[in-house]
Each structure stands twice: as structure tokens, then as C-alpha cells.
Amino acid sequence: MAEKKKRGLLFCVCLGTCPSFKDINEYEVLNALRKEKLVDWVGLHPQLCSTDGDEYLKTLLKGNDVDELYVAGCDPVMQKKMFRDAFDAAGFDRNKHIGIEVRNMKTDEVIDLIKKVIQERDKSV
Ligand code: SF4
Asked: Which domain holds residue 112?
């Protein structure tokens, strides 16, 4: 049997003031995912694309055993560009990052979307 993947989920709340997130209760999202044990750990950050966001990612990911890092927030292509240097500095394989766009969604929709992305990755293995 294949070894269970180590999965982390970060929610970037875009300072907590962005109107695109106004209908999302981020705590509810993280709680739903951790309660179902779909990820091994969760975290919330106000601005992952800032300098201290870089530091956070470097500190979190250096020497880690994370197989898949899900980041709920803005556009995945933007995420790839913005987190690239921090991932490289931490020695974290960029391909393990899975960005999920959740802007302009509601809490339940975000929960369902993240679950779907995780389950689809399981199926594709
Ligand atoms: S990483 Fe994306 S969601 Fe997070 S603060 Fe930057 S633009 Fe906003």
C-alpha cells in the first residue's frame, strides 16, 4: 500500500480586508478540512506574498517532510510566481505547491473545492 502523503493547507486571507474574501469564514474552512483529516496540518496567514510571508514559508518548509502544500487564496499562477523565491530558499520543490483560487466564493463552496482538489489528486496517483 502506498504511504500516506503528508499534506499541509495554508489559507492566505489577503490582509483580511480584501472584498473578494468577504463571504468566507476562513476558520470554518480550515476546521472542516482538519476535522475530516484530509490534511495533516493547517495554517492561516494574512499576506503570504509579503516579505514576512516569505520568511514564514521559509521557516515552515525548510527541512520539512511535506508532500503536498495546498494554498487557498489568490490565483495559482500568481502564487507560483510570488512564492518561488521562498520555496527555493527553503529547498522546497515548487511542484509540491498546489494553489487554489478561492476569491469571490462562499465558505461552503471553498470547503467543497479544496476537498475536490485533494480527492482528485488522490485519484490521479
Ligand atoms: S498571496 Fe495572494 S491571497 Fe495572499 S496576500 Fe498575496 S495576493 Fe493576497
From this structure: 7-123
